[in-house]
């Protein structure tokens, strides 16, 4: 899915990531952890082609991310569902339309998709809130809506940046359970999180590995949970 070889990245002169080598195999489940500012979001951006490594190689679905033009990057991104840290929505649209936005933008919306959309909204437990506007949702509802939006295009790879950042423990477990179910359906999952309790809670549900990011390097040999 993702392969990095000596990948490095810096926004300015100082490197944020240096000499990162790892492989995310299809169907795997990884946590990415590390101190605040270590570069977890930056790493995720390299994984979905938002940023390009300043040196080294990043292959996404076997393709060299540094060599892809915009159209190819856009095509590749359709296979990647991203749950962003900030969970931003279009506030003037009902949450159902926000979740459907990737379908709309890619011209794949329409009656044929309505049943799938409603099934997905039910799966994340938002059927009763489908017509609410984003500002009316709780933190946990927003996080679940962000997850639904990330997977509406049926991606192969799910990248979630602090998906339990603003929710209580019960909701964190519910979100974790959804991500574990997606992994059991065959999706590759990578979750960036500070929450060690969440990582421990995953142990009962999936075989996950922990990647620790510190000093610009990733310890990819992290033990199984
Ligand atoms: N667009 C940018 N321009 C310049 N510096 C940036 C930019 N985005 C992030 N940084 C810096 O890069 C470093 C890594 O940021 P990043 O958001 O990847 O860390 P993180 O591990 O995800 O942090 P957190 O856990 O706090 O979300 C930080 O020092 C941050 O200030």
Assign a percent range to the helix content.
25-40%
Which strand-content bin applies to the residues?
15-25%
- By CATH, the topology of the largest domain is Rossmann fold
Low-confidence stretches: none
Give me the count of strands: 10
CATH homolog superfamily of the largest domain: P-loop containing nucleotide triphosphate hydrolases
Largest β-sheet summary:
6 strands, mixed
Bound molecules: adenosine-5'-triphosphate
CATH architecture of the largest domain: 3-Layer(aba) Sandwich
Describe, in plain words, how this protein is organized in 3D:
GO terms for molecular function: ATP binding; ATP hydrolysis activity; transmembrane transporter activity. Residues 2-225 form the ABC transporter domain. It is a single chain. The chain has 225 residues and is an alpha/beta fold. Helix content is 34%, strand content 23%. It has 7 helices and 10 strands. α3 runs parallel beside α5 (139-151). The protein is globular and about 45 Å long. The model has no long low-confidence stretch (mean pLDDT 91). Bound molecules: adenosine-5'-triphosphate. Adenosine-5'-triphosphate is lined by residues 11, 16, 34, 36-42.
């Amino acid at each position: 899915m993702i392969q990095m070889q000596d990948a490095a990245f810096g926004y300015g002169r100082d490197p944020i990531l240096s000499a990162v080598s790892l492989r995310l195999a299809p169907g795997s489940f990884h946590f990415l952890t590390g101190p605040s500012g270590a570069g977890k979001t930056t790493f995720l951006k390299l994984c979905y082609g938002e940023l390009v490594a300043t040196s080294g190689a990043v292959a996404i679905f076997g393709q060299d991310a540094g060599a892809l033009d915009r159209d190819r990057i856009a095509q590749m991104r359709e296979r990647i569902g991203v749950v962003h840290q900030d969970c931003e929505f279009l506030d003037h649209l009902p949450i159902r339309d926000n979740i459907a936005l990737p379908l709309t933008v890619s011209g794949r919306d329409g009656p044929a998709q309505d049943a799938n959309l409603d099934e997905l909204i039910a799966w994340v437990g938002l059927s009763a809130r489908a017509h609410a506007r984003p500002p009316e949702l709780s933190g946990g509802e927003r996080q679940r809506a962000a997850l639904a939006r990330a997977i509406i295009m049926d991606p192969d790879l799910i990248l979630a940046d602090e998906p339990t950042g603003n929710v209580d423990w019960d909701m964190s477990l519910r979100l974790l359970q959804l991500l574990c179910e997606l992994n059991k359906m065959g999706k590759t999952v990578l979750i960036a999180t500070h929450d060690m309790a969440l990582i421990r809670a995953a142990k009962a549900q999936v075989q996950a590995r922990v990647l620790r990011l510190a000093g610009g390097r990733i310890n990819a040999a992290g033990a199984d949970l």
